[in-house]
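Per-residue structure
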Amino acid sequence: MKMKKILKGLAIGSAAVLATHFGFKTYKRLSGIAKLAKSLPEFLKNVYGEEPKLAINRSFNTMSIRAGFSGETLEKHNDIEATIREYVDDFYPDLSKCSLDIDVYELGDEEEEDEAEVEAEEDDE
């Protein structure tokens, strides 16, 4: 009977430690994404002279970054995706462990797509 109590206590303690560990890892990822969302636009503005429109999404093991720049900036610089990837690798190594999808697009194109989607949804109603 005493052995059963010891094993039960050990199992509960192990589960609590495991839950705390995963909770802490999740907290680090979420705080890293919040910090990245604040610092990346400023960094890109310093490098390219234009603050991009950013969208950062994180799923279980994938992080996606969408950065919108003007056509002029995209014509002048063809290394924006590599710059973003290096920035994440250098300053946020915890976030760079997952799969990183980077999409760089022209601002005018995206705005037109958004307007077309809104109009299509309004037509459906």
